[in-house]
Every structure is written in C-alpha cells, then in structure tokens.
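Batch manifest, entry 17 of 40.
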Amino acid sequence: MRVFKFTSLFIVGALIAAAYTAQAQKETEGRLDLALSYQAMRSNPVGGSNFWLQSGSMELHGQFWRGLGAVAEISGFHQGNVDSTGVSLDIVTATFGPRYTWFFPHSRLSVYGQALAGEAFGFNSVFPGVSSTTANANNLAFELGGGVNYTLDHHLSLRALQADWLRTQLPNAAANVQNNLRLGAGLVLHFK
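Output type: structure tokens
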C-alpha cells in the first residue's frame, strides 16, 4: 500500500512538472539559434597517445516542436606539434542531426542533448595509408553529447558548458579510430 501511494505521488508530480516544462518549451518553438564557441578537444587515438587540440565551433540550431530541433555544426581543430614530433594536425568536422532541449519553467537554464553525424576532414598532417602516406584525409564523424545554456536576455544566452564524445575514423596506422572528448563554452544568439 505504501509503495502504491509513493508511486502515485511520483506520477502526479512528474505530470505536473511535464506540463510546466511543455509550456516553457512551447514559448521557444520556431526559434533559430546561432552559437559561437571555443572548445578544447582531448584526442585519444586507438593505438596511439593522447593529446589536446584547440578549436572553434559554429552551429545553427532550429527548434521546431516541443524542445525537438535540428542542428548543423562546423568545428575546426588545431594542434601544432602532436606528441613533440614536429607534426601538426588540423581537423574540420561538419555534422548534422537532432537535438532535444529541456527548458525549465521560471529558470534561465536549459539543458540539451544531441546526436550528430557527418564528416571529418584532416589536413596539414601525416595520415598513413595501406600503401602510402598522405597529408590529407577524410572519413566519418559521429558526435554524441550535450550542454547547458544560461539565458541572459531574449536574444542572448551563455553556453556555460558543452561536452561531447566525437568519434572520427581518420587513418593513423593503427585502428584508424579516434575517440575524442570535447569541452567548450561560448555565446548563443537567438532569432525568432
């Protein structure tokens, strides 16, 4: 009996919270966001050593229904001296996919999660292949992550934190897989 009361109370509370959240999300439908951010990326190539890259990112996010939207992102990464070898590495990723944003009523905070796919372009580096080495390569990129935005006013938010797992598959003389951790922050401009 006690479990039934607790479960019922939990369900009623969840429904009330969902109703408030749905109202907050409805106010943002049809909004277009442009985000500019700085990111640091910890690259973890399978079969290789870890190193950091510096990055800038630009994304366009359209919110179209109850927190659900689509996002397109372009990021550029640079490391001038990978593992003190004298070899540099530049990567540009272009990804696209769905994003869901949770807006909390009477709060300036919003939280989002996303799953993006696209392509990674590596250049100005050394990419070992089966029979030769090249300075440029491209392959698939997959990104899974999310972040927290803090609304400053109707047209501007602060991206307090963005954290993503970015998987790239550029040639590296091992498994040709890189698992990367991206951490970033920036500004988000809102257009209605």
